[in-house]
What does this fold into?
Amino acid sequence: FAHLAPCDVAMEVGTHSRWVSNLLMSFGHTVVIANARKLRMIYESDHKDDRSDAKMLVTILQFKRELLYPIKHRGDAAQDALAVLRARDLLVRTRTKLVNHIRGVCKSGGARMRSGSAEAFHHRELDELPDNRRAALSPLMQVLSSLADQISLYDAMIAKLSKEKFPETETLSQPSGVGPITALAFAATVEDPKRFPTGRNVASYF
It folds into this structure.
């Protein structure tokens, strides 16, 4: 593509479409990214393969490109923020699974750990673990402690991103129950509110 004269390129949105489209545009090409969910002519075809899909895309591009329902990828700042949020979410879900596992193992052995939040679970003393399960569960308690440190790092990153890249999160966080994570997730997902004609359209987007 680097050696072609500037041309129009159509592709379906997907895992690689963001960086591929950016690369093609750096060569001077115009890229139209098709909304795959809208392309019934392709995904409902009886003769679906890469070559047929490509022919269908270029045909639509040539004659009525609005039928591709073109989408626009998020900018770098929004992508970076969402990557941080998703990584933190993965650690939190991992922590929940570890805590549930530890509680379940203790309960199956006839012991019951005192109630408390998953966030503070790593502060518990190892003496709370039943003697016959301590060797099996102690390493998991160490992992929980490490997870807590990493989650705290992500919280600091979220605070910095919100302040420097998404100042609107300060307003979004004002309603009761809306914290920095929800505010940043909303701001990064919407990114440009002007692309929605009304607030109702934003609600249906989510």
